[in-house]
Amino acid sequence: MTINARAASGASSQPRTLLRRADGSSIRVLVVDDEATLTDLLAMALHYEDWEVKTASNGQQALQLSREFKPDVVVLDIMLPDIDGLQVLSRMRADGNEAPVLFLTAKDSLDDRIAGLTAGGDDYVTKPFSLEELVARLRGLLRRSRAAVADQDDPVLIVGDLVLDEDSYEVHRDGEPIQLTATEFELLRFLMRNPRRVLSKAQILDRVWSYDFGGSSSVVELYISYLRKKIDAGRPAMIHTVRGAGYMVKAAQ
Where is each OmpR/PhoB-type domain found (predicted)? Predict the structure, then answer.
């Protein structure tokens, strides 16, 4: 496996900003992979971030740790010796664990990436990979999840009867609470920070996922459909498609 040695040793040319949980305690990370060498390297890199790390080598152990450890973010290999990572994620969500999940796998086809995200994952890294990239991806997920303390001048976004609170990570429409995953929340926040502005799929990929999928727009379309089911279902539409241009959010007429 190709590893960036500087990331493994903790050296960096950029000053680090440590991320903490809202209560000041260390971020909790669950790493699930059956390669002991890999989990050891990941644990070393994540400990350098001052995060608390637990590792699991199979799906059943991962589920047990998920319930006991209650991680803030999960690194999850798809190919495991007992049950695959997609099943692990499904059972975690059934248990009520909504922690962001970064899939880690040797599979590199676009279909496999889409499958992982469709299952409810929030990001995807393929082997071989750079530890620096993986840590950066995790930091991005944590910043837009409940584990990150919001640092915005105006934490409450309002568009029509839709309200998003960046501090509490709560979303309401017409006073009714709406439950979103970390990625759905980040996508909605990006739309609401740009009301009545058409955002292209490329802009959304860059802002919400911090990278693209080889030019594919499938992930954006998929998550827009998720948002519509939660935001617009049974109500006047607020999320609109502008053919050939992108998407925008505006107050319902």
Answer: 154-251
Q: Which residues lie closer than 8 Å to 145 by C-beta, 6 or more apart?
A: 72, 73, 99, 100, 169, 182
State the DSSP H helix or E strand holding residue 102, giving kind and residue range, or none if neither. Answer: strand 101-105
Query: What is the number of structural domains in the chain?
Result: 2
Assign residue 60 the CATH number of its domain: 3.40.50.2300
Are residues 166 and 75 both part of a single domain? no
Is residue 40 a part of any domain in this protein?
Answer: yes
Q: How far apart are CA 155 and CA 200, in angstroms?
A: 24
68 lies in some domain: yes
Q: Which contiguous run of DSSP H or E holds residue 103?
A: strand 101-105
Residue 118: is it exposed, middle or buried by C-beta count within 10 angstroms (0-12/13-18/19+)?
middle
| β strands within 205-245, DSSP E | 239-242
In 3D, which of 180, 204, 206, 211 has the Cα closest to residue 190? 204
With 0-12 / 13-18 / 19 or more C-beta atoms within 10 angstroms meaning exposed / middle / buried, residue 31 is buried
Q: Enter the pTM of the model.
A: 0.58
Over residues 76-124, the pLDDT tens digits come to 998 899 998 899 999 999 998 889 999 887 766 566 666 666 777 888 7
